[in-house]
Amino acid sequence: KQEVTQIPAALSVPEGENLVLNCSFTDSAIYNLQWFRQDPGKGLTSLLLIQSSQREQTSGRLNASLDKSSGRSTLYIAASQPGDSATYLCAVRRGAQKLVFGQGTRLTINP
Amino acid sequence: DTGVSQNPRHKITKRGQNVTFRCDPISEHNRLYWYRQTLGQGPEFLTYFQNEAQLEKSRLLSDRFSAERPKGSFSTLEIQRTEQGDSAMYLCASSSWTGSLNTIYFGEGSWLTVV
Questions:
Q1: I want to staple A102 with a disulfide (CB 3.0 to 4.6 A). Which of A6, A17, B71, B115 is the partner?
Q2: β-bridge partners, A99
């Protein structure tokens, strides 16, 4: 059974810092991995998707890496801003169907 | 492309009542998913449709839960005889099969509170 773990559960940093969120998964036979952002009481917004054959993806200040063999992914946020405050979720996909999510990292960027 | 739309956004119901949620996926997306999320947890998979066919159901989907996608477009999730443990956010998502580019897009969710 695939299990996804995100560390830390919560993170608070001052504005402007670069930061890394971690995601680990137990079964390396994944199809892809997706990072999402969730604001309080809202749905999920897709940030980045990394196919199993890829090592990283970049979008603006966000960079996600994937090391499938070790079962790890990181989300790097450069020059953090208060608007980046949200919960960040990673999810892995096996086959073409469901995503298995971690519990998320609740990020607070302090002005 | 107006995104995944879910209705109602909030529902408060008394225990024992039936509730129904509707999801309109992104047009031309042939895959539709339902997830449930409780406070402080990641979403958990409930069920998945490809076109009108329901291809997978989680053990979380008890016999009080039923999902349909009659014409392969919108979907409904009905919960019968609601229990307090059903209180959660119900998320709908959709995707299309276009080679390897199959990002899953989520709606804003439907909050259910059972009192």
A1: A6
A2: A93
Q: Measured between CB atoms, does A33 come within 8 Å of chain B? A: no
Check B109 against A43: CB less than 8 A apart.
yes
d(C-alpha B95, C-alpha A41), whole Å: 22
Percent of chain A with pLDDT over 90: 84
pLDDT tens profile B8-38:
999 999 999 999 999 999 988 889 999 999 9
Which residues on neighbouring strands pair with residue A11, listed in sequence order?
A107
Is A99 in the B-facing interface, judged by CB distances under 8 Å?
A: yes
Please give the distance of CA A73 from its chain centroid, rounded to a whole number: 7
What local confidence, expressed as pLDDT, does residue B98 receive? 65
Q: What is the mean pLDDT of residues B72-98?
A: 93
A44/B contact by beta carbon, under 8 A: yes
What do you get for the CA distance between the two ends of chain A, in Å?
41
